[in-house]
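Shape is hard to put into words, and the shape of a protein is harder than most. The fold becomes a row of whole numbers, each drawn from a learned catalogue of backbone shapes. The outcome of that step, for a single protein, is printed below.
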Amino acid sequence: MGTRVAISAAAIVAVALMVAACSMSQYSEPRASWRAAAEEQCLASGLVKSSPYVQATEDPPGKGSCGMSRPIKVSAFHDGAVAVAPPATINCPMTAALDRWMGGPVQQAGRRYFGQPVVGIKQIASYGCRGRNGSHFGPLSEHAFGNALDIAAFRLADGREITVLQGWWRGTPQEKAFLREAFISACAEFYTVLGPGSDRYHSNHFHVDLLLTNAKGSRHYCRPLPSRNPEDTPTAFLSDAEPSRPRPKPLAFTGDLY
């Protein structure tokens, strides 16, 4: 009888904890104050200006703390020279950072390895009100604040498309070198950068975001660990926390779950 009562009490406690967890939704936590401050500082700097390719838009649908103060719809970077397909809904700091990256290091890499500029990117996730890894618990994704972008491919002036899924592991030497140089330069510009080899969710794209807590001086969270050598063994591109993890098989995920 005593055992039966103990089990019943444990079950009641478990149910109570589940109910409490459900009531404390990840969307109910107030949006961190640094997010609005970063947007206002960016807008005041004049780094992002309205143009046919960069337009203020309405706050996208979401719930709780999702969204941003000044959402922007971007159809091209670098004064229209780098098209974004489909257009991305992101915040001002991401717009400025992506514009610098696209107009500088990405163009330099395109000319270095292909003798031509990059004229477009394929993005597979910009704003989206959701948790990391699609979870209903834990932190919201940076996508939930328009503070992230997933890039699956780069298009060259001659129409060639360099995809992360095929190019990172199986591309030509030039494609591998281009993608690694783009990745390394992204690690300097953005606070979080994830790509093939970081985990199973990023085999087909680069995830870049500006999560402030991942910025520690000039050191940002970048996985896999950067290397310029396209012929390095797979373990050279894995997290230092997982040195023996085998090379992942390419998986056709539709978008980043971080």
